[in-house]
Design goal:
Residues 7-99 form the Acyl-CoA dehydrogenase/oxidase N-terminal domain. This protein is of the alpha+beta class and 394 residues long. The chain has twelve helices and nine strands. Strand 4 and strand 5 form a beta hairpin. Helix 4 (60-73) packs parallel to helix 8 (224-253) and helix 4 (60-73) packs antiparallel against helix 9 (272-303). 46% of the residues are buried.
Amino acid sequence: MTTTEDWIRTAREVAAKLAVDAVERDRANETPYQEVQLLKDSGLVTLLGPVEHGGGGQTWETAYRVIREVARGDGSIGQLLGYHYLWAWAARLVATDEQIAVVEELYTRDKLFFGGAVNPRDSDLTITEDGDELVYRGHKSFSTGSKVSDLTVLEGVLEGTGDHVFAIVPSKQEGIVFHDDWDNIGQRLTESGSVTINDVRVPWSSAAGYVDKKFRPLTYNTLNVPTIQLVFTNFYLGIAQGALDTALAYTRDNTRAWPYGGDNKESAGEEWYILDGYGDLQAKLWAAEALTDKVGAEISQVLHAPREELTPEARGEVAVRIAAAKQRVIDTGLEIGTRIFELTGARASATKYGLDLFWRNLRTHSLHDPVAYKRREVGAYALLGQLPEPTWYT
């Protein structure tokens, strides 16, 4: 695969395979080993990896579209892939050039899959210093990717300081205990349960971005949140597109015209309220997609530019537009997830069709952080000219 179109085509092929039994797999709620293997076998996990190590050498603009396409077939797997891309890029966000080279060669060459135990709402993992090593201890209530990951990103605070330290460690080790307690109404196959970290040791040399035990900050370091917020936006958009695709197919094959309206039609395709409804939802989805693509191109340019060139102002400008895209996609997606039942008809509510899956998936993850704060960020920018300040959620 050498072009964006090649990667999108592959993502669509993967999505088509996932969509076949997405409803059944959601109900079974089993660890998605085969689904992640499909991502590896397709080559999608190395899309951002260096070409010299067998990666695709693609941009984030392409990665966002691939996430969206995969989520169109299965929202959970789209989320897993999106998080993988973010954590695979984590070294570039905060590490030194030497550390970046080591991490990118490792994960690209061996097609390793990333998970992450970085949940800002929990107390940070405690890090103690033991000679030339750092020792991580603590508990996180969410660790997306858990058992299907090969590598886990840890983050904690060095004891006696306020210094945050990121490190990438093997997922399969005695010191990492995944608790298999993720059983929510949506995004059920994301392996997002809690994790306990017991004496996981990392050499000081692997502490991301630290040189001689000192961190050298850049504005670029703060792109982790806008980057993943747009990951969210794209798999939300993919879920919404999947919902509309599925509803349209159902209506073509099964929905009957209403025979008691006084203007009776022969088929659902002639029924005015169905055409009006789908026209409204499709238009809103196209608008949300256009905004998401535009801001995806913007942040991709920033992410692939020299790290030292990023200014706080440029970072804030792209972050506020991501906030706008996210709120618009959430609102549109939830509306689609609800209104498709009005357009498909009563029989479509049978559990065998699984039309509720899309709403459950989007509703569950869109609670990650309050969308009202994203509206506030956009409002403060529009009215007051204020750019979002970097936080763990902004």
